[in-house]
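Need a sequence for this fold. Nothing fancy.
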């Protein structure tokens, strides 16, 4: 059996400028969908927690700070709506009423300024209740987000196609950047490509591809994912032009259990067809010292070198 590798220039096939596909990636490099969704149902109140938990740290902190500030501004305006509602507050001073609101919401109570009317006492009771509820929810949300275990898995920047063990093979690699292990790690790879059915309908097809080893009892250092290109492989007999026409993407998903916390962790990465390097191989990142000790150099993790194409 022989598999024809695509012709390459400088070992990396490129289409001429006029033939570059205009379709964008449907999945970014971190595995997030890049698809606009229309006709989605309105967000439900029960989805707020999930939305906040999945929000990035920067946006979450900004949202909490903005909510805290706006709430105090609102209550400061309510306190100012009645003259003399806050004893010892300067008349017409927004800052005094704002600081009193902050003290009330945080239940600090310095005692310098106190409510002196029924309206002020009612507002203090409402604000104190909202403050306790808000602190409880913010504390729980931040703790849940902080306690989530995220794996630090590094994926190779490119995918290589070369001859391995006498067969044409597609390979990429990943590394565990933590000193702890990910046990019972499972690796799955899906190919996304555009196809046209016999009825003339265009669709985005998902195809699972097989790996020589898709399970690792302990993922501690690095993992070389190897996919043999045979007649059953979606890469069998492909060229740069066919990959571009299909807008091919490779989505990788790693699932395992972090040994320290016992939590299930996952990591995703996606490659575009332009990330494939034909007739290249990865640089070996392991060296053996004179005393027999092994060293892994992640500084060369993404490096590839060209190899002679098969004859």
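Here you go.
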């Amino acid at each position: 059996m022989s598999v024809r590798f695509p012709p390459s220039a400088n070992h990396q096939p490129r289409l001429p400028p006029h033939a570059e596909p205009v379709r964008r990636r449907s999945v970014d490099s971190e595995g997030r969908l890049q698809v606009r969704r229309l006709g989605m149902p309105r967000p439900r109140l029960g989805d707020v927690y999930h939305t906040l938990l999945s929000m990035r740290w920067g946006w979450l902190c900004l949202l909490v700070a903005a909510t805290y500030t706006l709430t105090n501004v609102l209550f400061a305006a309510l306190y100012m709506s009645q003259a003399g509602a806050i004893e010892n507050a300067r008349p017409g001073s927004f800052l005094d009423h704002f600081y009193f609101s902050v003290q009330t919401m945080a239940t600090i109570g310095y005692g310098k300024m106190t409510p002196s009317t029924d309206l002020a006492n009612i507002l203090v009771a409402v604000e104190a209740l909202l403050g306790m509820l808000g602190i409880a929810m913010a504390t729980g949300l931040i703790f849940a987000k902080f306690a989530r275990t995220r794996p630090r898995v590094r994926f190779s920047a490119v995918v290589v196609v070369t001859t391995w063990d006498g067969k044409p093979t597609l390979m990429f690699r990943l590394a565990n950047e933590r000193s702890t292990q990910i046990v019972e790690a499972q690796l799955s790879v899906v190919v996304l490509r555009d196809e046209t059915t016999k009825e003339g309908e265009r669709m985005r097809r998902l195809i699972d591809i097989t790996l020589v080893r898709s399970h690792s009892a302990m993922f501690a250092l690095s993992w070389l994912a190897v996919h043999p290109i045979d007649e059953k492989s979606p890469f069998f007999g492909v060229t740069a032009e066919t990959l571009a026409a299909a807008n091919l993407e490779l989505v990788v998903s790693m699932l395992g259990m972090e040994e320290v916390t016992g939590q299930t962790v996952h990591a995703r990465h996606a490659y575009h067809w332009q990330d494939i390097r034909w007739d290249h191989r990865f640089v070996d990142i392991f060296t053996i010292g004179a005393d027999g000790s092994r060293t892994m150099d992640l500084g060369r993790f993404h490096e590839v070198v060209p190899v002679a194409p098969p004859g």
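For context: Residues 21 and 245 are 7 Å apart (CA to CA).
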